[in-house]
Every structure is written in C-alpha cells, then in structure tokens.
Automatic annotation (TrEMBL):
One of its GO terms (biological process) is DNA catabolic process. Keywords: Disulfide bond, Endonuclease, Glycoprotein, Hydrolase, Metal-binding, Nuclease, Signal. This is S1/P1 nuclease. Residues 1-23 form the signal peptide. It comes from the Bacteria. It comes from Colwellia ponticola. The keyword Zinc-finger does not apply.
Amino acid sequence: MFKILYCSLFFSGLMVFSQPSFALAKFGHNIVCQLAFDHLSASKKQNVIELLQTVPKTHQAIINHYNHLSKNTPLTFANACTWADAIKPHQKSQATFKQYQSWHYLNVPRNLVKITQASCSNNCLPQAILHHQQQLKDSSVSWQSAQALLFLGHWLADIHQPLHVSYASDLGGNKITFAKKEGQCNNLHWYWDTCLIQAAKRTKKQWLASLNAQWSKSYTAPYQAKHVWQWADESYQLIRAPRFQYCQLTNQQVCLRPQGKIRLTDDYAEYYLPVIEQQLLNASQRLTRILEQSL
C-alpha cells in the first residue's frame, strides 16, 4: 500500500556510525531494561540470567567497554541491552550483524498519516521485534537465543524513541539542527536521545523510583504481534505534532522538513519530559510482557 523510503547506503552508514545521536542513548536503554527485569517473575528473571551466561567473553568485553566498565564486570540485563549499539564499531561484529543496521528504525513516506502493518514488510524496527520475539520463544538456551533477548530489549527502547519512526531524508532528525545548542546536543534526534532525559536532572536511581511509582497505575495489555504497529504509530504521531518541531504539515498532511536551523521553544523540555517518561514506562512494561510470554 505504501512504499517505504529506504536510506541510501551513504545515509545508512551515517545512521549507523554517527554517535551519540543514532540510537536512544545508553542511559535510556539501561533504564528500560532494568525496570523490565525488576518486574519479571522470579522464574523469568532466572531465565534471563541463564541467557546472559551464554554471552561470549568477547561480547561481554564489548558491552562493558561501551558502558565504561571493566571488561570482566558481570553482565546485567540493563547493561547488555546496549549490545546492539556496542557492536557497531567492531569490524568483525559489523560483518556478522550488518543485516540488522536498518532494524533500529522505520522510515516511511512523508505523506503517510498512520503507521500500519503495510508500512513495512521487512528489515525495519517493528519487524525486528516480531522476528526476535519469535526467535527467543522458539530457541533453547544458547548464544543465539541470548542475541534475540538482547536485540528485543534494545528494540523496545528504540521503538519508543519517537524519531526512530520518521523519514530517511533527514536521518530521523539527525539533520534537523539547532540554531543554538541545547546542552551538548546540536540536532533534534540527539536531543531526544540524550538531552531531554538529562533535562530532568535525575540520577538513574531517581528515574527508576519515579517510573516504579507509576508502574501499577498504567495498564499494559498482554503482548500480541499486532501491537508493534500500534507502538510505532504512537511514536509517529508524536513527531508529526507541530509542537515537536519536526514537521511542517501541509493541508494534505504531508510532513515538510523545517527550513533552516530550528530553535526549541522555552518550554519544550518542560512539555516533553512527561512524554519521554511515559515512553520509557511503556517500553519497560511492554518488554516485561513480551519476556513473560517468550522465555
């Protein structure tokens, strides 16, 4: 029904290697997976621990290096959820996992109004969740099933970072630059990865406490495959809102790229902090549901 806009190899390379603005920053991934793990049943927590024990020493070292830990630090699910990003700079890993580069995001046409299953048939973020959920469910305890677990943890955070469901021509907001830097961030994607979360001025412990306090107040339906498209659409509707400052919508509901550099409104962080908090909570709860059904 809709034709997907795929990045050229050049743009794809930029998306993969431009750090830190490509994927939800490691802090966000850490929060999502820690919270999800904390709310798993005891038996499912043990299953996660057993899968982490199958991660080869070389990949354990890669994860720990990425998280600024000593190479022999025991893996936690929270830290291991950064693995899909951590392997990118490693040449041998790149060759093995190159097929997953486009799985971190979903690119759609600028005239698309709503994400549906027709929006992507393969090699994109919603399909990545479907693939690795099924692989985790069907596999015995092995490095292969551990990979599925780590990918799943990563994908659930990525799909809730709104700009991972966006447009190829501006690299998901990486090319929407600021007239004035916002903290350390000079583009919109990087801001949503890092600087918006930093604007809360909370420690990891404070983030976890805040999200835990909201856990029982937010209902999450049991996981079904159709939900991945709903999650993608939730992110997509966020980026198309004028206040997000990513789209200039025409009368035909086409999202035009803003002209020139943008300036975030003075209340931008205040308005969107509750939004990113809800996205992190949704990602955590939905990941818990998937793991309870798949492990």
